[in-house]
Protein backbone atom coordinates (compact mmCIF):
# COMPACT_ATOMS: atom_id res chain seq x y z
CA UNK A 1 0.00 0.00 0.00
CA UNK A 2 1.48 3.38 -1.00
CA UNK A 3 1.88 6.32 1.33
CA UNK A 4 -1.05 8.34 -0.10
CA UNK A 5 -3.47 5.43 0.50
CA UNK A 6 -2.22 5.04 4.08
CA UNK A 7 -2.75 8.75 4.66
CA UNK A 8 -6.29 8.60 3.23
CA UNK A 9 -7.22 5.62 5.39
CA UNK A 10 -5.84 7.35 8.47
CA UNK A 11 -7.95 10.44 7.72
CA UNK A 12 -11.11 8.30 7.35
CA UNK A 13 -10.36 6.52 10.65
CA UNK A 14 -9.86 9.82 12.46
CA UNK A 15 -13.07 11.23 10.98
CA UNK A 16 -15.06 8.11 12.00
CA UNK A 17 -13.73 8.19 15.56
CA UNK A 18 -14.67 11.86 15.79
CA UNK A 19 -18.23 11.07 14.72
CA UNK A 20 -18.46 8.30 17.33
CA UNK A 21 -17.21 10.63 20.06
CA UNK A 22 -19.80 13.24 19.10
CA UNK A 23 -22.60 10.63 19.24
CA UNK A 24 -21.73 9.60 22.79
CA UNK A 25 -23.00 12.84 24.31
CA UNK A 26 -26.73 13.34 24.74
CA UNK A 27 -26.49 17.06 24.02
CA UNK A 28 -23.66 18.89 22.42
CA UNK A 29 -20.47 17.25 21.19
CA UNK A 30 -17.69 15.27 22.81
CA UNK A 31 -15.72 16.42 25.81
CA UNK A 32 -16.68 17.18 29.38
CA UNK A 33 -20.32 17.17 30.48
CA UNK A 34 -21.94 19.80 32.72
CA UNK A 35 -24.89 17.84 34.09
CA UNK A 36 -24.96 14.06 34.50
CA UNK A 37 -28.36 12.40 34.82
CA UNK A 38 -29.03 8.85 36.02
CA UNK A 39 -32.56 7.45 35.61
CA UNK A 40 -33.75 4.07 36.93
CA UNK A 41 -34.96 2.23 33.83
CA UNK A 42 -35.88 2.53 30.16
CA UNK A 43 -38.60 -0.08 30.67
CA UNK A 44 -41.20 2.34 32.10
CA UNK A 45 -42.69 5.04 29.84
CA UNK A 46 -42.41 7.62 32.62
CA UNK A 47 -38.59 7.60 32.56
CA UNK A 48 -38.30 7.62 28.77
CA UNK A 49 -40.49 10.74 28.79
CA UNK A 50 -38.25 12.31 31.41
CA UNK A 51 -35.17 11.56 29.31
CA UNK A 52 -36.61 13.45 26.34
CA UNK A 53 -37.73 16.39 28.45
CA UNK A 54 -34.31 16.69 30.10
CA UNK A 55 -32.70 16.86 26.67
CA UNK A 56 -35.16 19.52 25.55
CA UNK A 57 -34.67 21.55 28.75
CA UNK A 58 -30.96 22.07 28.07
CA UNK A 59 -31.16 22.42 24.27
CA UNK A 60 -30.94 26.20 24.27
CA UNK A 61 -28.38 26.53 27.08
CA UNK A 62 -24.61 26.55 27.03
CA UNK A 63 -24.53 23.44 29.20
CA UNK A 64 -24.34 19.81 28.13
CA UNK A 65 -25.81 16.66 29.62
CA UNK A 66 -25.42 12.92 29.42
CA UNK A 67 -28.28 10.63 30.49
CA UNK A 68 -27.69 7.05 31.60
CA UNK A 69 -30.12 4.34 32.74
CA UNK A 70 -29.52 1.89 35.60
CA UNK A 71 -32.02 -0.75 34.37
CA UNK A 72 -33.11 -1.72 37.86
CA UNK A 73 -29.58 -2.38 39.13
CA UNK A 74 -27.92 -0.46 41.96
CA UNK A 75 -24.54 -1.79 40.78
CA UNK A 76 -25.19 -0.41 37.30
CA UNK A 77 -26.31 2.85 38.89
CA UNK A 78 -22.99 3.18 40.71
CA UNK A 79 -21.11 2.46 37.47
CA UNK A 80 -23.16 5.14 35.72
CA UNK A 81 -22.28 7.71 38.37
CA UNK A 82 -18.59 6.82 38.09
CA UNK A 83 -18.80 7.16 34.29
CA UNK A 84 -20.31 10.63 34.64
CA UNK A 85 -17.71 11.66 37.22
CA UNK A 86 -15.05 10.72 34.67
CA UNK A 87 -16.85 12.89 32.12
CA UNK A 88 -16.21 15.89 34.38
CA UNK A 89 -19.75 16.69 35.54
CA UNK A 90 -20.38 19.52 37.99
CA UNK A 91 -23.96 18.50 38.85
CA UNK A 92 -25.47 15.03 39.24
CA UNK A 93 -29.24 14.55 38.93
CA UNK A 94 -30.16 11.03 40.02
CA UNK A 95 -33.32 9.01 40.59
CA UNK A 96 -32.16 6.18 42.87
CA UNK A 97 -33.10 2.61 42.11
CA UNK A 98 -32.77 1.93 45.84
CA UNK A 99 -32.75 4.94 48.16
CA UNK A 100 -30.27 3.42 50.61
CA UNK A 101 -28.00 1.71 48.09
CA UNK A 102 -27.57 4.91 46.08
CA UNK A 103 -25.79 6.49 49.05
CA UNK A 104 -22.42 4.97 48.14
CA UNK A 105 -22.66 6.28 44.58
CA UNK A 106 -23.50 9.86 45.51
CA UNK A 107 -20.87 9.92 48.27
CA UNK A 108 -18.29 9.20 45.58
CA UNK A 109 -19.63 12.13 43.55
CA UNK A 110 -19.70 14.41 46.58
CA UNK A 111 -16.01 13.71 47.29
CA UNK A 112 -15.30 15.09 43.83
CA UNK A 113 -17.08 18.35 44.65
CA UNK A 114 -20.14 17.50 42.56
CA UNK A 115 -23.54 18.87 43.63
CA UNK A 116 -26.08 16.06 44.00
CA UNK A 117 -29.78 16.53 43.20
CA UNK A 118 -32.06 13.64 44.16
CA UNK A 119 -34.78 13.55 41.52
CA UNK A 120 -38.33 12.31 42.21
CA UNK A 121 -37.10 9.68 44.72
CA UNK A 122 -35.14 10.60 47.83
CA UNK A 123 -31.69 9.13 48.46
CA UNK A 124 -31.67 8.13 52.12
CA UNK A 125 -29.26 7.81 55.05
CA UNK A 126 -26.43 9.91 53.63
CA UNK A 127 -25.47 13.57 53.93
CA UNK A 128 -24.14 13.58 50.34
CA UNK A 129 -27.45 14.89 48.93
CA UNK A 130 -27.73 18.62 48.36
CA UNK A 131 -31.22 19.05 46.90
CA UNK A 132 -34.37 17.05 46.33
CA UNK A 133 -36.79 17.79 43.48
CA UNK A 134 -40.09 16.05 44.04
CA UNK A 135 -43.82 15.95 43.73
CA UNK A 136 -45.42 16.02 47.16
CA UNK A 137 -45.49 12.24 47.51
CA UNK A 138 -47.64 12.19 50.64
CA UNK A 139 -50.29 14.27 48.86
CA UNK A 140 -50.19 11.81 45.92
CA UNK A 141 -51.20 8.96 48.23
CA UNK A 142 -53.76 11.15 49.99
CA UNK A 143 -55.33 12.03 46.64
CA UNK A 144 -55.56 8.35 45.73
CA UNK A 145 -57.13 7.45 49.07
CA UNK A 146 -59.57 10.36 48.96
CA UNK A 147 -60.69 9.36 45.49
CA UNK A 148 -61.62 5.89 46.74
CA UNK A 149 -63.62 7.48 49.57
CA UNK A 150 -65.41 9.93 47.24
CA UNK A 151 -66.33 7.31 44.64
CA UNK A 152 -67.73 4.65 46.95
CA UNK A 153 -70.75 4.55 49.22
CA UNK A 154 -72.18 2.44 52.01
CA UNK A 155 -70.26 0.26 54.45
CA UNK A 156 -68.26 -2.95 54.38
CA UNK A 157 -66.63 -2.15 51.04
CA UNK A 158 -63.76 -4.59 50.34
CA UNK A 159 -60.52 -2.62 50.12
CA UNK A 160 -57.48 -4.08 48.38
CA UNK A 161 -54.19 -2.35 49.19
CA UNK A 162 -51.14 -2.40 46.91
CA UNK A 163 -47.85 -0.50 47.17
CA UNK A 164 -44.65 0.22 45.30
CA UNK A 165 -41.21 -1.21 46.02
CA UNK A 166 -40.01 -1.33 49.62
CA UNK A 167 -36.59 -0.16 48.34
CA UNK A 168 -38.17 3.13 47.17
CA UNK A 169 -38.75 5.76 49.85
CA UNK A 170 -41.58 7.21 47.75
CA UNK A 171 -43.55 3.98 48.15
CA UNK A 172 -43.68 4.65 51.90
CA UNK A 173 -44.68 8.29 51.37
CA UNK A 174 -47.46 7.34 48.95
CA UNK A 175 -48.77 4.72 51.38
CA UNK A 176 -48.49 7.13 54.31
CA UNK A 177 -50.63 9.66 52.45
CA UNK A 178 -53.22 7.07 51.44
CA UNK A 179 -53.41 5.61 54.95
CA UNK A 180 -53.88 9.06 56.48
CA UNK A 181 -57.24 9.48 54.74
CA UNK A 182 -58.32 5.83 54.44
CA UNK A 183 -57.64 4.79 58.05
CA UNK A 184 -60.63 6.61 59.61
CA UNK A 185 -62.88 4.99 57.01
CA UNK A 186 -61.34 1.60 57.74
CA UNK A 187 -61.76 2.08 61.49
CA UNK A 188 -65.46 3.04 61.13
CA UNK A 189 -66.28 0.07 58.90
CA UNK A 190 -66.72 1.92 55.60
CA UNK A 191 -63.91 -0.21 54.18
CA UNK A 192 -62.89 -3.75 55.08
CA UNK A 193 -59.27 -4.63 54.29
CA UNK A 194 -59.30 -7.70 52.08
CA UNK A 195 -55.68 -8.59 51.42
CA UNK A 196 -53.39 -7.61 54.30
CA UNK A 197 -53.53 -9.10 57.78
CA UNK A 198 -50.83 -6.61 58.85
CA UNK A 199 -52.96 -3.64 57.77
CA UNK A 200 -56.05 -5.17 59.37
CA UNK A 201 -54.19 -5.51 62.69
CA UNK A 202 -53.28 -1.81 62.54
CA UNK A 203 -56.65 -0.47 61.37
CA UNK A 204 -57.10 1.60 64.55
CA UNK A 205 -53.69 3.29 64.20
CA UNK A 206 -54.01 6.74 62.63
CA UNK A 207 -50.25 7.00 62.14
CA UNK A 208 -47.91 4.16 61.24
CA UNK A 209 -44.24 3.83 62.06
CA UNK A 210 -41.79 2.99 59.30
CA UNK A 211 -41.55 -0.55 60.65
CA UNK A 212 -45.33 -0.96 60.66
CA UNK A 213 -45.55 0.26 57.07
CA UNK A 214 -42.71 -2.11 56.14
CA UNK A 215 -44.73 -5.03 57.43
CA UNK A 216 -47.76 -4.00 55.38
CA UNK A 217 -45.66 -3.38 52.26
CA UNK A 218 -44.15 -6.82 52.74
CA UNK A 219 -47.60 -8.26 52.03
CA UNK A 220 -48.82 -5.91 49.29
CA UNK A 221 -45.73 -4.68 47.42
CA UNK A 222 -45.78 -4.83 43.62
CA UNK A 223 -42.13 -3.74 43.33
CA UNK A 224 -43.50 -1.41 40.65
CA UNK A 225 -43.70 -4.52 38.43
CA UNK A 226 -46.99 -5.13 36.53
CA UNK A 227 -46.31 -8.87 36.39
CA UNK A 228 -45.85 -9.03 40.15
CA UNK A 229 -49.02 -6.96 40.52
CA UNK A 230 -50.92 -9.50 38.41
CA UNK A 231 -49.65 -12.39 40.54
CA UNK A 232 -50.52 -10.60 43.79
CA UNK A 233 -54.01 -9.66 42.61
CA UNK A 234 -54.74 -13.19 41.37
CA UNK A 235 -53.51 -14.68 44.65
CA UNK A 236 -55.59 -12.27 46.72
CA UNK A 237 -58.80 -12.84 44.76
CA UNK A 238 -58.33 -16.60 44.90
CA UNK A 239 -57.88 -16.45 48.69
CA UNK A 240 -61.11 -14.57 49.48
CA UNK A 241 -64.77 -15.51 49.31
CA UNK A 242 -67.68 -13.70 47.64
CA UNK A 243 -68.12 -11.48 50.72
CA UNK A 244 -64.85 -9.71 49.82
CA UNK A 245 -65.74 -9.26 46.17
CA UNK A 246 -68.78 -7.54 44.65
CA UNK A 247 -68.16 -3.75 44.49
CA UNK A 248 -64.55 -3.18 45.55
CA UNK A 249 -62.00 -0.40 46.01
CA UNK A 250 -58.39 -0.88 44.98
CA UNK A 251 -55.43 1.27 46.01
CA UNK A 252 -52.91 0.75 43.19
CA UNK A 253 -49.69 2.76 43.50
CA UNK A 254 -48.99 3.69 39.87
CA UNK A 255 -50.37 3.33 36.37
CA UNK A 256 -48.40 0.26 35.30
CA UNK A 257 -49.61 -1.74 38.29
CA UNK A 258 -53.11 -0.19 38.09
CA UNK A 259 -53.67 -1.52 34.56
CA UNK A 260 -52.38 -4.95 35.53
CA UNK A 261 -54.53 -5.14 38.65
CA UNK A 262 -57.58 -3.75 36.83
CA UNK A 263 -57.34 -6.50 34.21
CA UNK A 264 -57.29 -9.16 36.95
CA UNK A 265 -60.27 -7.71 38.81
CA UNK A 266 -62.21 -7.22 35.56
CA UNK A 267 -61.76 -10.90 34.73
CA UNK A 268 -63.20 -12.13 38.04
CA UNK A 269 -66.88 -12.90 37.61
CA UNK A 270 -67.61 -12.27 41.30
CA UNK A 271 -66.28 -8.70 41.14
CA UNK A 272 -69.25 -6.53 40.13
CA UNK A 273 -67.31 -3.29 39.87
CA UNK A 274 -64.01 -1.80 40.98
CA UNK A 275 -62.58 1.64 41.62
CA UNK A 276 -58.81 1.61 41.05
CA UNK A 277 -56.28 4.39 41.51
CA UNK A 278 -53.11 5.15 39.54
CA UNK A 279 -50.29 7.62 39.17
CA UNK A 280 -48.11 9.13 36.39
CA UNK A 281 -50.71 9.75 33.62
CA UNK A 282 -49.11 7.20 31.30
CA UNK A 283 -50.65 7.13 27.82
CA UNK A 284 -51.86 3.56 28.21
CA UNK A 285 -53.62 4.45 31.45
CA UNK A 286 -55.22 7.55 29.96
CA UNK A 287 -56.75 5.25 27.34
CA UNK A 288 -57.86 2.91 30.17
CA UNK A 289 -59.50 5.88 31.92
CA UNK A 290 -61.27 6.94 28.72
CA UNK A 291 -62.47 3.34 28.27
CA UNK A 292 -63.62 3.06 31.91
CA UNK A 293 -61.08 0.40 32.84
CA UNK A 294 -59.04 2.58 35.25
CA UNK A 295 -60.74 5.10 37.51
CA UNK A 296 -58.16 7.84 37.94
CA UNK A 297 -54.52 8.75 37.81
CA UNK A 298 -52.51 11.32 39.72
CA UNK A 299 -51.01 13.56 37.06
CA UNK A 300 -47.50 14.65 37.91
CA UNK A 301 -46.48 17.08 35.19
CA UNK A 302 -42.90 15.98 34.61
CA UNK A 303 -42.38 19.08 32.47
CA UNK A 304 -42.49 21.10 35.69
CA UNK A 305 -40.38 18.61 37.62
CA UNK A 306 -37.72 18.54 34.91
CA UNK A 307 -37.77 22.34 34.72
CA UNK A 308 -37.30 22.56 38.51
CA UNK A 309 -34.36 20.13 38.44
CA UNK A 310 -32.65 21.87 35.53
CA UNK A 311 -33.25 25.31 37.09
CA UNK A 312 -31.47 24.18 40.26
CA UNK A 313 -28.63 22.71 38.18
CA UNK A 314 -28.20 25.92 36.17
CA UNK A 315 -28.31 28.05 39.33
CA UNK A 316 -25.47 25.93 40.72
CA UNK A 317 -23.48 26.11 37.49
CA UNK A 318 -23.99 29.89 37.39
CA UNK A 319 -22.89 30.24 41.01
CA UNK A 320 -26.33 31.14 42.37
CA UNK A 321 -28.28 29.72 45.32
CA UNK A 322 -31.33 27.72 44.17
CA UNK A 323 -34.79 28.47 45.56
CA UNK A 324 -36.45 25.72 47.58
CA UNK A 325 -39.92 25.28 49.08
CA UNK A 326 -39.37 22.83 51.93
CA UNK A 327 -37.18 20.00 53.19
CA UNK A 328 -37.26 16.23 53.74
CA UNK A 329 -35.53 14.18 56.42
CA UNK A 330 -33.55 11.45 54.64
CA UNK A 331 -32.33 9.86 57.87
CA UNK A 332 -29.00 11.70 57.87
CA UNK A 333 -29.97 15.32 57.16
CA UNK A 334 -32.80 17.64 56.21
CA UNK A 335 -32.52 17.85 52.42
CA UNK A 336 -33.63 21.15 50.88
CA UNK A 337 -36.45 20.44 48.42
CA UNK A 338 -38.40 21.97 45.55
CA UNK A 339 -41.94 20.57 45.49
CA UNK A 340 -44.35 20.41 42.56
CA UNK A 341 -48.15 20.13 42.86
CA UNK A 342 -50.14 17.14 41.58
CA UNK A 343 -53.53 16.90 39.84
CA UNK A 344 -56.19 14.17 39.99
CA UNK A 345 -57.32 13.15 36.49
CA UNK A 346 -60.40 11.05 35.64
CA UNK A 347 -62.86 10.81 32.75
CA UNK A 348 -64.39 14.19 33.62
CA UNK A 349 -61.26 16.30 33.27
CA UNK A 350 -58.84 14.22 31.19
CA UNK A 351 -59.25 16.45 28.12
CA UNK A 352 -58.80 19.68 30.09
CA UNK A 353 -55.75 18.57 32.06
CA UNK A 354 -53.85 16.51 29.48
CA UNK A 355 -55.00 17.55 26.01
CA UNK A 356 -55.76 21.25 26.43
CA UNK A 357 -52.49 21.65 28.38
CA UNK A 358 -50.67 20.07 25.39
CA UNK A 359 -49.16 17.32 27.52
CA UNK A 360 -50.60 14.83 25.03
CA UNK A 361 -52.33 15.17 21.66
CA UNK A 362 -55.94 14.09 21.20
CA UNK A 363 -54.89 11.98 18.20
CA UNK A 364 -53.00 9.67 20.57
CA UNK A 365 -56.27 8.35 22.02
CA UNK A 366 -59.56 6.84 20.85
CA UNK A 367 -63.01 7.61 22.24
CA UNK A 368 -62.01 10.98 23.63
CA UNK A 369 -64.94 13.41 23.57
Automatic annotation (TrEMBL):
Residues 35-320 form the Periplasmic binding protein domain. Residues 1-21 form the signal peptide. It comes from Caldalkalibacillus horti. The keyword Cell wall biogenesis/degradation does not apply. Keywords: Signal, Sugar transport, Transport. It is found in: Cell envelope. Its main location: other. This is Multiple sugar transport system substrate-binding protein. PROSITE patterns: PROKAR_LIPOPROTEIN. CDD domains: PBP1_ChvE (cd19994). The keyword GTP-binding does not apply.
Amino acid sequence: MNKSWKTALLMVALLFSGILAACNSSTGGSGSVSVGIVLPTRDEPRWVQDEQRFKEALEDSEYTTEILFSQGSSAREKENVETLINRGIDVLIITPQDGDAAGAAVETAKKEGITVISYDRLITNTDAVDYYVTFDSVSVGAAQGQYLIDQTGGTGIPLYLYAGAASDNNAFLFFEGAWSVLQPKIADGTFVIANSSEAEALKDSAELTRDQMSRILGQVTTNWDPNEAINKAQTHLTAVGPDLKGDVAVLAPNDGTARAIADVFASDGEVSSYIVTGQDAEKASIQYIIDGKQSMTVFKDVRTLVTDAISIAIDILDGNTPETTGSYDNGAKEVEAKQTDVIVVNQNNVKQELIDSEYYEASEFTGLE
